[in-house]
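Note to self: the last two entries modelled the partners one at a time, which told us nothing about the interface. This time every component goes in together.
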Amino acid sequence: MKLLVVGGAGYIGSHTVRQLRAAGHEVVVLDNLSSGHAEALPGDVTLVRADLLDPEAVKAALNAHQPDAVIHFAALIEVGESMRAPGRYYRNNVVGSLNLLQAIVETRKVPLVFSSTAAVYGTTDAVPIPEDAAMQPESVYGDTKLMTERMIHAFHVAHGLPYTVLRYFNVCGASPAGDIGEAHPSQTHLIELACMTALGQREKMMIFGDDYPTPDGTCIRDYVHVQDLADAHVLAVEALHAGQHVAATYNVGLGHGFSVREVLDAVDRVVGTPLNRELAPRRAGDPPRLVADASRIVADLGFSPRFTDLGEIVQTAWNWHKGHPHGFKK
Ligand code: UFG
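The predicted structure of the combined assembly is written out below.
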């Protein structure tokens, strides 16, 4: 199959490009490189440098490369920033996705796999969270993803566009080879920050609250390894191409969670020295427990995550950060 991977130079996109090629598929990447890195791509992958806010460029790429399916990762992803700059988030994430949808139905009407997020659920009492849980995003970021999910479904109903939505939980880790990994312009994710603290780039790790209703008082999250998540995209796009499970939405997680303290303990063990830790007040908007009910993707697509051991997950992140303390910058 030939795939157009939009946002393929980013963290999750670049791991997916690699897994798609390992599965024998041909890949063309479209990315504006606002947060992605050309260095994260194999040297022989075609990179179209274009922005989803330029509809003509998107149509031109679809016409030029004639993909059999599209995988759409391109988005701004910071929850805090989305609250301060909603216009930028709605424009990039919603208008950009609308341009892509319009371009697909006007050119090739090929299947679409879309990157969504557990942030569409907001705070919920459901543990674990099934796909049909109530959706009340608490951030502009989560809202842009929910709006895009709804647009995609409307294009399916009106134009027959085949699609799969994948709702990611806490994506983490890096390629086991240690050559590609997380390199965002600003870091907010727990494991990434802990690795940077271990490297001495930050003074200490803050634990945002230890008075949550969880066994050790810190928040629990479902940490899914980026390579397993990449495999989920391969499974999803292959099923869509075969005409199976069209218009499905899947949670992607392990189905069990780890607390902030358990994650930091695992980092201590992997690094070999204890991190400097400090207790801080709760961070606004953090639900106590976010764990996926991932049974649907297991049943339909045979999703079978390989990285279920927290120590192993952290080890891959640590290998990447240790070898690339400044990300893709030399
Ligand atoms: N945390 C700390 N200290 C830090 C950073 C994080 O204690 O320095 C805590 C947070 O309070 C939270 C947990 O670690 O309890 C995980 O926080 P992250 O920022 O790593 O991730 P989030 O759970 O906030 O959000 C991530 C993605 C969202 C997605 C969500 C789904 O960023 O887009 O996972 O589970 F929706």
